[in-house]
Structure of Amidohydrolase family protein:
Amino acid sequence: MNWIDAHVHLQGAQLHPETLQEGDRLGITRFVCSTVVGMGYSPTFDQVRESNDHLSAVIERHPDRVSGYCYVNPRHGGKALDDFRRRIEDQRMIGLKLWVATLCDDPLVFPFIEQAIAYRAPILIHAWRKTVGQLPYESTAAHVANLAERYPEARIIMAHLSGQVESSVQLIEPYPNVYTDTSGTPIGGGEVAIAVRRLGAKRVLFGSDLYGICLASNVGKVLGAGLNDDELDLVMGGNMQALLDGVVASHDKTI
Ligand SMILES: [Zn+2]
C-alpha cells in the first residue's frame, strides 16, 4: 500500500504532530502539503514567503514523507513568480497552490500557470461553490474549466470537487487535464463514486484537507465508494504518484 494524501495544510509552521503516525496506521506514506491557513485571503508577499519557508523546512525534515505545493498570491507578480521558481528548482517543492486571492482564471495567474506547465508541476486550486457567502475571488468549477480550456497542458487539481459534485463534474468533464480531489465535508462516499463514474478513476485523487479534520473518515469515504481494487489504487495514490513522477525540475528529486 502506497497511498498519498494530495491535499494537506500545515498547522502554522508545522505538520500536525500526529499526522505522520496517523499515516502509518492508515497506510498513507506521503502527504502533499501547502500553507495558506491563518494568513487571510490576500496575504502580503512577506507572509507568503515566510509560510513557504516553513513548508520548505518541513519537507527538509521529512523528504520521504512530505512534498509541497508552493502557495502564491498572484497579485504579487514577478517577485512571487521568482519565489515559485526558487521553491521548485532549489527547494524540492513539486507544485503550485492557488487559493482565494484571485479567481484562478484571472490574467494575473497566467504567468504562474505557464511556469507550472514548464515544470509539468501539478496546480492545486481551491474551488468551492456556495449557496451563500461566496468569497469575492473564490473560484468555482466554472473558473477551473475556463483555465483548463486556455491551458490544456496544465495539470490542474480542482480541490474538494468544488463542494458540489454534480455541477462540478459536469463542468470539468470535457477537460482531461483537470483532476479533482475528495476533500471537503460535503463530499462523502456517494460523491466520490459519482466522480469516479463520470470522470474515470484516473482523474480523482484522495485528499483530506488536513489539519483540523479526521484523516480516517476521509480515507473511509473513498473506501466506502464501492470502487474496484484498480480504481482504489489509482485514487488513493497511483494518480498522485504519476503526477509527482512527471515533475521536471533541476533539483535532485526524492519524491
Ligand atoms: Zn485545502
Remarks:
- The chain has a mean pLDDT of 95.
